[in-house]
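All the exercises in this workshop are built on plain-text protein records. Instead of coordinates, the fold is spelled out as a row of discrete tokens. Once this layout is familiar, the rest of the handout is easier to follow. The record below serves as our worked example for the rest of this section.
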Amino acid sequence: MRGGHALITWKLINQPVIESVLDICQSFMLDNGAFSAWRSQKPITDWTKYYEWVYGKSRVPSFDFAVIPDIIDGNEEDNDALLNEWPHSEYMGAPVWHLHESLDRLDRLAHEWPRICLGSSGEYQMPGSKLWNKRMDEAMEVICDEDGYPSCKLHGLRMMNPQIFKRFPFASAESNNIARNIQLDVAW
């Protein structure tokens, strides 16, 4: 990881690991943990501690951005409400556009924020599937110009598969699988 870019997921990585990441990585991003909460069916309802955690880590020079809280299978109104609650600048955070949401919302986010995250959800929850690829193509039609350049930076959530990240104009992509399993030898 020396000189690399790391993802730190709120509540999933212990403090010594975080300190190591801050010491050796060139840059890092913060993840809100919504995916883990969604998978465990234990939604996060109070984001106050996450906002405080983001503020503290944002003071580290290698901080890149934080994923703004989201509800993965939520509706656009609920996710827009979380955007309105975001207490930091638009340069500190990146909202999530979920593939099941409208292309109009994607267009709006891409023009209001310097970076957005793309998240697989609903009927498009399997990155790389035929249906997922079709939806991603529709999304690229909305946010890219005629030369294929997006109107903002794009971050692919759970999109580290080379067949995915080489196909789309991402500024960054991640999979928290390594971070979640790094201490579990059986996962390797």
Observations:
- Residues 69 and 82 are 6 Å apart (CA to CA).
- Strands lie at 5-9, 27-31, 63-67, 93-94, 96-98, 115-119, 153-157, 172-174.
- Confidence is low (pLDDT under 50) at residues 178-188.
